[in-house]
Amino acid sequence: MAGQDGYSLTSNWFLAKILARCIVAHKISPTQTAVLLYLAGCQEDSYVNQTQQQMADGIGIPRTSANAALKRLCTLNYVRKVRNGCWQVNPRLCFRGNGDRQNRIVTLTMSEVLDSGFPDEIGPAEFADAL
What is the model's pTM? Predict the structure, then answer.
């Protein structure tokens, strides 16, 4: 969908080879999938400025469920917590904006020193390694 800010891109590789397989193999739960899709839809240049309570209210789940889902999504490097109330959707997987903006955000994110391997290491490892 085109718009003033560009369009949303979700990696076909991620959808077909990772996310679909994760859902079927129960590597991520329906709640985790809902939180990921919610974040993907709310992002601006891969960032979402919302508290866990705001996300939970937007999805219709308890805050504790949103918290647990976010922890799992962070473990998989689909999402990372930037600070309280600010999250980043992995820009290699899903990005709202044009390709130039996406490349800038990926480069900026890669320039940060992160312990998690975000945005390059994408879990679960056994799915990514099999490709």
Answer: 0.86
